[in-house]
């Protein structure tokens, strides 16, 4: 077995920060699978990310009317990337009326969210594909890894929740969190799971009700990290902010508190290299192929 194959098969990257006794594992996360290459949050995108060699699959969960967990970034159908159940373009003014929380999964799966492509990602391959059930994603990934002898990846699961959407676009935080916890508890080992959210209510509920679960706080504001954690009310396992909000000093300060730093969404090789040089614990990227070529 070659050294290159050995490290690839373990699905992690070993980087030495100037000392053989101080080896750090870099968590390369495929954002929505591999959004730069295949339609986001779809089974083909997740399989592509696994085949590339990511450590973790990053994905988003919404809920249907019949309490099914669907992998989707929005709780509705994004007019930029989806066609309706008849294959027609969706008007921007109508997209939020196509509310996943008010549909059964049979209705959701009739929409095509791959043929249109994504104008932000010109390299993305187009195909007809539906928003998948989370259960189907797990089955496809586990079967693929078993069949091809690949280690199973971790999952970084974002709960899409906003106070204005309670009982309209998603369940209230306690119900949403309980639904996700029960599902994961029956299907996956918790050491493979991170729960993340921009909604601090979700994170507080998990922290209080399920203290065994690893949590990541998602941040896009410019407040000091100390203030964000004060508002959150506890120190999570991971601080996951927009990458441009970081500095080497902030990375070191957070890590000195025992908090890992995994920024999003880093798509440029130069930015990736800078973040890694600062000591970031991982990278969330639409282009895991670029990150893995740099750091594998």
Account of the protein in words:
With 296 residues, this protein is an alpha/beta fold. It is 32% helix and 17% strand. It has helices spanning 3-9, 43-52, 105-108, 134-148, 173-187, 200-209, 225-232, 248-256, 269-278, 288-295, and strands at residues 13-16, 23-31, 56-63, 69-71, 154-159, 193-197, 214-219, 238-241, 260-261, 282-285. Strands 1, 2, 3, 4, 5, 6, 7, 8, 9 and 10 form a 10-stranded mixed beta sheet that branches. The longest helix has 15 residues, at 134-148. The radius of gyration is 19 Å and the shape is globular. The protein starts with a helix and ends with a helix.
Helix fraction by DSSP (H/I, runs of at least 4): 25-40%
Largest sheet: 10 strands, mixed
Shape: globular
- Regions with little confidence, pLDDT below 50 for 5+ residues: 1-23
Average pLDDT over all residues = 93
Q: How many alpha or pi helices?
A: 10
Proportion in β-strands? 15-25%
Give the radius of gyration: 19 Å
The rounded distance between the terminal residues' Cα atoms is: 16 Å
Strand/helix succession: HEEHEEHHEHEHEHEHEHEH
Structural class: alpha/beta
In total, how many beta strands? 10
């Amino acid at each position: 077995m070659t050294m290159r194959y050995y490290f690839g098969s373990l699905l992690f990257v070993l980087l030495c920060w100037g000392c053989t006794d101080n080896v750090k594992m870099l968590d390369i996360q495929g954002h929505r699978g591999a959004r730069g290459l295949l339609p986001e949050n779809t089974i083909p995108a997740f399989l592509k990310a696994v085949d590339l060699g990511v450590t973790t699959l990053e994905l988003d969960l919404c809920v249907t009317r019949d309490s099914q967990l669907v992998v989707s970034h929005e709780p509705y159908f994004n007019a930029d990337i989806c066609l309706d159940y008849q294959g027609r373009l969706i008007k921007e003014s109508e997209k939020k009326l196509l509310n996943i929380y008010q549909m059964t999964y049979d209705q959701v799966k009739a929409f095509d969210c791959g043929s249109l492509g994504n104008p932000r990602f010109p390299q993305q391959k187009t195909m007809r594909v539906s928003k998948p059930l989370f259960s189907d994603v797990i089955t496809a990934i586990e079967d693929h890894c078993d069949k091809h002898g690949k280690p199973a990846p971790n999952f970084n699961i974002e709960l899409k929740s906003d106070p204005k959407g309670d009982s309209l676009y998603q369940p209230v935080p306690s119900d949403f969190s309980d639904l996700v916890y029960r599902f994961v508890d029956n299907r996956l080992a918790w050491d493979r799971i991170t729960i993340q959210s921009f909604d601090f209510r979700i994170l507080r509920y998990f922290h209080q009700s399920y203290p065994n679960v690893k949590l990541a706080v998602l941040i896009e504001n410019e407040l000091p990290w100390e203030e964000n954690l004060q508002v959150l009310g506890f120190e999570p396992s991971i601080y996951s902010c927009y990458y441009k909000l970081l500095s080497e000093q902030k990375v070191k300060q957070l890590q000195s508190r025992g908090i890992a730093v995994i920024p999003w969404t880093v798509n440029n090789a130069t930015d990736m290299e800078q973040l890694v040089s600062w000591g970031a614990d991982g990278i969330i990227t639409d282009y895991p192929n670029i990150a893995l070529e740099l750091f594998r």
